[in-house]
Amino acid sequence: MPKHDPRIPCEMVKALLQYEAEATKALETFVQTVEAKKPPPMLYHYTTEMGLRGILESGNLWFSDIFAQNDPSELRHGLSIATAILKSRITNKRPEIDTFAQSIERFDVDAGIEAAGHFFIFCFSAHGDELGQWRAYADNGRGFALGFDTQLLEDAFVKKENGKPNKHHSTFHLTYDDAQLTRLQTSLADLIDPLISLPRSTGVRGDALSAYMMEVLVYHSMNIIRGVMFFKHEAYRNEKEYRFQQLFRYDKAAPEVKYRRRPGAIVRYREYDWRKRANGALKRIVIGPAADRTTAVRFANDCLAAFHGRTDPVAVEVSKIPYRAT
């Protein structure tokens, strides 16, 4: 976090710092359970014909701003659970809880939650031939799935070029468990609860109160997001998503950000040079079930010959799913 507003009394700053330390511990405890789950041996990224060529030609993976994803509802789902937990604590004697919960909601609705941090993600799946993902992410089954060796790609991603850990990079399984998400967000709400009512006992008012409540809001929203990032609605369980994430502080500009066009929007993204950092990680290309097999196999092999430039073979395979796109 940045320096605290000087208008906030020292004892309230101390309470904020204690909250952040305890919230970080709660989140790290959960992350340890996620990291204890072994990653799959292969990671697959579903994409279109244009995406396949782009990844092979450039050697880059595009990490997109998570708040600009095609379906941000996965975030909204987790945020709604966190907000509902706060609202459940509203009483006549503590109207400030209602005010704070509404502030969290407005922070979300007004896109202010995006100011909680710079999150860039790239999504993989443990499943290399799954119909739902062919339909959703690979041109309704006409596209491709690129299969990477997990250890090669992951080791390169979580370390800097000098071999030291990259504190901005992480990898993890997505969790599809609303009950577990509720437990995590409840533990965070338990920690922030006394801070919401702290001004009652300190008597702080005016600009100092506004500054303090804004920092409480930012602290808690950041931790809500840090928790929500590990979850997806249970309806997406079949995707078996494994996520690569880049996270940067909200109060500084994220480095080396580029912009691409999407219908009706400009999307931020960052490039990751997988070919330079994990040369040899690409092992398979799977052809979608609705693709013209002859044409698609030829296209994949032509792209490999033109852009990949390695002697070790990349297997080009065909989906085993019977599916005809309409």
Describe this structure in words.
The longest helix has 26 residues, at 10-35. The chain has helices at residues 10-35, 49-58, 73-87, 95-109, 131-137, 150-157, 178-196, 198-202, 206-228, 274-277, 293-308, and strands at 42-47, 60-65, 118-125, 144-149, 169-173, 241-248, 258-262, 265-273, 282-287, 315-318. Strand 7 (258-262) and strand 8 form a beta hairpin. The model has no long low-confidence stretch (mean pLDDT 90). Strands 5-6-3-2-8-7 form a six-stranded antiparallel beta sheet. It has a four-stranded mixed beta sheet with strand order 1-4-9-10. It is of the alpha+beta class. It has eleven helices and ten strands. Helix 1 packs antiparallel against helix 7 (178-196), helix 3 runs antiparallel to helix 4 and helix 7 (178-196) runs antiparallel to helix 9.
Element layout with pairings:
Elements: H1 10-35, E1 42-47, H2 49-58, E2 60-65, H3 73-87, H4 95-109, E3 118-125, H5 131-137, E4 144-149, H6 150-157, E5 169-173, H7 178-196, H8 198-202, H9 206-228, E6 241-248, E7 258-262, E8 265-273, H10 274-277, E9 282-287, H11 293-308, E10 315-318
Parallel strand pairs: 9-10
Antiparallel strand pairs: 1-4, 2-3, 2-8, 3-6, 4-9, 5-6, 7-8
Helix pairs in contact: 1-7, 1-9, 2-11, 3-4, 3-7, 7-9
| Span between termini | 51 Å
Give the radius of gyration.
22 Å
Major sheet characteristics: 6 strands, antiparallel
Tertiary shape: elongated
The count of helical stretches stands at 11
Across the major sheet, the strand order is 5-6-3-2-8-7
Q: What is the total tally of β strands?
A: 10
Average pLDDT level = 90
What helical percentage do the residues reach? 40-55%
Order of helices and strands: HEHEHHEHEHEHHHEEEHEHE
Kindly estimate the percentage of residues that lie in beta strands according to DSSP: 15-25%
Low-confidence stretches: none
Helix/strand-derived class? alpha+beta
